[in-house]
Amino acid sequence: MPKPSLTFPTGLVLFAISNGIQYGFDIIDATGLPSGTVYPALRRLEGAGCLTSDWEGGEEVDAEGRPQRCYYGITPEGEALLAQALDRFPAIRWTVEGEPSPEPGLA
Q: Hey, how many other C-beta atoms are within 10 angstroms of the C-beta on 96?
């Protein structure tokens, strides 16, 4: 699959995953992006070799009484694309939940 388009949402998704946010709903919460943006981006990024995915086992899911989660990890290709995204869209660092905002005048 070809390299995914370098868009702000793509950068947000990669940045969230690179900071330990590993599954869909948490990525949605951290980025503020809608599910209709996050899940297609995850599929494209995984298909392009920028992400890995791993479905959790059934025992853990059954014990907690919730749907099965797919956990994502960033690959070296994803790290390279993220570096390009951060160069192009520096605000990504301050958009994902948990990252400090820049001081006024430093953005």
A: 21
Helix (H, G, I), strand (E, B) or coil at 103: coil
Do 70 and 23 meet the contact criterion of CB atoms below 8 Å apart? yes
Q: Considering the entire predicted model, what is its pTM?
A: 0.83
Could you give the CA distance from residue 106 to residue 25 in angstroms, rounded to a whole number?
Answer: 31
pLDDT tens for residues 3-18? 778 999 999 999 999 9
What is the distance between the alpha carbons of residues 11 and 15, in angstroms, rounded to a whole number? 6
Q: Where are the alpha helices (DSSP H) in 1-107?
A: 8-18, 24-31, 35-47, 58-64, 76-88, 92-95
Q: Please give the radius of gyration of the chain, using alpha carbons only, rounded to the nearest integer.
A: 15
Which token pair is 69?
Answer: 């989660």
